[in-house]
Design brief:
Structural class of chain A: alpha+beta
Mean pLDDT of chain B: 89
Helix content of chain A: 25-40%
Distance between the termini of chain A: 100 Å
Number of domains of chain B: 2
Strand content of chain A: 35-45%
Low-confidence stretches of chain A: none
Oligomer: heterodimer
Largest sheet of chain B: 21 strands, mixed
Distance between the termini of chain B: 70 Å
Helix content of chain B: 10-25%
Number of strands of chain A: 12
Radius of gyration of chain A: 29 Å
Radius of gyration of chain B: 33 Å
Chain lengths: ~230, ~450
């Protein structure tokens, strides 16, 4: 009566296992590495796509709702250095529903959900040639309480724009391209970035950008600033 | 011999490999879908952007070529879905373009400023996004100040406007319409002079002027020469009776200098715009006074040569209104100082050239008009209103400001960039009932979810 494996059987199994197990383990490790590589590549591609889409979206909006003010008062909507860029655009706009005076703490506009606490606003009147930047401290129905008292008088129908300022900057030590919105902190957008270059062509209102990843890959393209040309 | 152990190992091995394979496959498929959807979205959105830009050009061209004088209330009668119906793109039937119009009116003293907002939505059957565009069209309606037009020729012509401009080499650089229209104009020289000289009444007369300048009251003209009208620490106006040989403008830092040469004698005036500082120099006499000069100069005669000395004719803060009842010849550039290299938007000089009927009874010697007589390219930064003829003898005349005239003789090229006037001359010089598309702004183009 056989109650267990014979020594020979165990030896055979061990011998087989010693041959098979490394093969199995190595193929599992190889396929895991392969899948990880594919996943990493795809994630990097996603990050690149996300970065390109974000830059494209911000640049396309650059100057939006600010063309009239910028044309009248001459403040820049697009600024750049070799390794950074800053864009300014309006998210939404309203008009003053009442006259307001220098020294006032707030303004009246029609109810609009974009005008919320903490948002930066531009108030301007092309007729009087006056403008100022301010911030919404609080909101009480149609009344916006401002962080700073008004510096100028504005008549009813003067324009109020909620503005958004977006800044991109490369941090070479951290090899990261970071993005900042309004007064927030710079948040990483894409990593392993070794170069970021921006060139503005005012004649054609277009921007050339180039992002270099790990000294190997380059993402580059031209973006037409549609919100800065259409006059 | 039993082989159960081997089968289990094999099954586990196969399952593990299959699981890894499937995970990788589904991951790849998932990402391929995302990538493909993204690519499709970008292509479709790009196509919609392209259609919108094309439509905006077409829209701009259409409204600027339309004669809006035909519409009683263009904001209602013209800017509506009857004239701008929903359309499918000619290149892609999946793309639909829709307009919706709103407007608001700001009432000014003599005219209305009507802002029409056209919200253009471009949508595609293949995309979850729409492109939304907001266009502002500003229409001026009513009695519009003449300096609001880059170029207004008040004359009847037989040619289409564009052909006339091309033949006469008049080029607009401000994307605004130039106007050729023979119409009645509110050209109130008399009240303009009354305002300059702070005289009350309905028409300017020699008697009123003699009284103002302290002469014996009669209907005779005041003596020839320069007369300074000083009232309450203010120099209201420099009035010159008779012809001026030379009128030279120059600057020294923030001091505005004016040299007036009459019959060979030079009179210099230095002042700081907006400040109580005025100096007059005649021969060796220098007279410094605590006066605020209101920057109004009126010449009842011809000006032989108007010139700039140095790099600039006017300081940045200057706002000079110069009236001339005869012919004025400009012989050099007339530019405003721009020390901070700012983008300039308004003129420091407003030139008005017109006969004052009540003062100039014998008008044989006076033909109101401005002649630009230079040999090279000339830049004039001024708002020019002539109840007469503009003659350009310069090969290239760049006007930064505006021109209104009744006639034009151009021997070179005139290039106009519209700048507003700092002076409010609209009270005296304006159109009768007229409509004008003043501005066209694409305020916003953005992608929005349907």
């Amino acid at each position: 009566m056989i109650k267990g494996f014979s020594l020979l059987e165990i030896l055979v199994v061990l011998a087989l296992m010693s041959v098979l197990l490394p093969t199995i383990i190595s193929s599992v490790v190889a396929s895991t590495r392969c899948s990880q590589k594919v996943i990493n590549n795809q994630q990097r591609m996603e990050a690149i796509f996300h970065t390109v889409d974000t830059i494209r979206s911000d640049l396309t909006k650059c100057g939006m709702r600010l063309q009239e003010a910028s044309h009248t008062f001459g403040f820049p909507m697009f600024e750049h250095s070799d390794q950074s860029l800053k864009v300014l655009y309006g998210v939404d706009q309203e008009i003053l529903t009442n006259d307001c005076c220098e020294g006032d703490k707030g303004i009246f506009i029609n109810r609009n959900d974009f005008f919320t606490k903490g948002k930066r606003v531009l108030i301007y009147d092309t007729e009087s040639g006056k403008y100022e930047f301010n911030e919404i401290k609080d909101r009480d129905g149609d009344y916006l309480i401002l962080s700073h008292i008004l510096q100028n008088n504005y008549l009813k129908n003067a324009v109020v724009v909620v503005i958004k300022e977006v800044e991109y900057k490369i941090y070479l030590k951290q090899k990261a391209l970071k993005r900042k919105v309004n007064k927030g902190y710079f948040q990483p957008l894409i990593e392993e970035v070794t170069d970021f270059h921006v060139q503005f062509y005012p004649e054609s209102s277009s921007v050339f950008y180039r992002i270099e990843i790990n000294h190997k890959e380059q993402i580059k393209g031209y973006i037409f600033l549609v919100n800065m040309v259409a006059k | 011999m039993k082989t159960n152990g081997n089968i289990i190992i094999s099954i586990v091995f196969i399952m593990l490999i299959s699981f890894l394979g499937l995970t990788l496959l589904s991951f790849s498929i998932f990402h391929t879908w995302i990538r493909s959807a993204r690519t499709l979205k970008i292509i479709e959105t790009g196509r919609m952007h392209h259609e919108l830009i094309y439509y905006l050009h077409h829209f701009h061209e259409k409204i600027f070529n339309e004669n809006i004088q035909h519409f009683h209330q263009p904001e209602i009668d013209y800017f509506n879905n009857e004239h701008f119906p929903d359309i499918a793109s000619s290149n892609d039937n999946n793309i639909i373009i829709k307009n919706s119009f709103t407007h608001r009116t700001l009432s000014k003293e003599y005219y209305n400023k009507i802002r029409i907002t056209d919200t253009i939505i471009v949508s595609s059957l293949k995309n979850n996004y729409e492109i939304k565009s907001e266009v502002f069209i500003d229409i001026l309606s009513g009695q519009i100040p003449l300096t609001f037009f880059p170029f207004f020729l008040n004359k009847t012509i037989d040619l289409p406007e564009n052909t006339f401009m091309e033949q006469n080499h008049v080029i607009d650089k401000s994307s605004k319409n130039m106007v050729i229209n023979d119409m009645a104009i509110e050209f109130d020289t008399s009240n303009f002079l009354l305002d300059c000289l702070k005289i009350k009444g309905s028409a300017i007369t020699w008697a009123a002027m003699r009284e103002k300048f302290g002469f014996e009251v009669s209907d005779e003209p005041i003596p020839e020469g320069i007369h300074l009208l000083v009232e309450d620490d203010e120099l209201t106006c420099i009035f010159i009776q008779g012809d001026v040989d030379r009128l030279v403008f120059s600057t020294q830092e923030n001091v505005q200098k004016i040299l007036i040469v009459i019959n060979g004698a030079s009179h210099q005036y230095h002042y700081k715009p907006g400040e109580n500082y005025f100096t007059s120099i005649f021969r060796d006499n220098q007279n410094e006074e605590f006066l605020l000069f209101k920057e109004k100069i009126a010449v009842n005669g011809n000006i032989g040569a108007m010139e700039q000395e140095g790099d600039a004719a006017f300081t940045e803060d200057a706002n000079i209104t110069l009236f001339c009842s005869g012919n004025m010849t400009i012989r050099s550039n007339l530019e405003t100082q721009n020390l901070n290299l700012k983008e300039m938007k308004s003129t420091s000089l407003t030139l008005v050239c017109s006969i004052a009927k009540t003062l100039n009874i014998n008008t044989e010697d006076l033909t109101p008009g401005i002649t630009v007589d230079t040999k090279e390219e000339t830049v004039i930064e001024a708002s020019i209103i002539i109840n007469g003829k503009l003659t350009n003898k310069s090969p290239k005349l760049k006007i930064k400001g505006s021109i209104f005239s009744n006639d034009l003789q151009n021997e070179g090229v005139i290039e106009i960039t519209h700048w507003n006037s700092k002076s409010d001359t609209g009270r005296f010089f304006r159109t009768t009932d007229f409509k004008y598309i003043n501005q066209f702004y694409v305020n916003a183009i953005e992608e929005v979810l349907k």
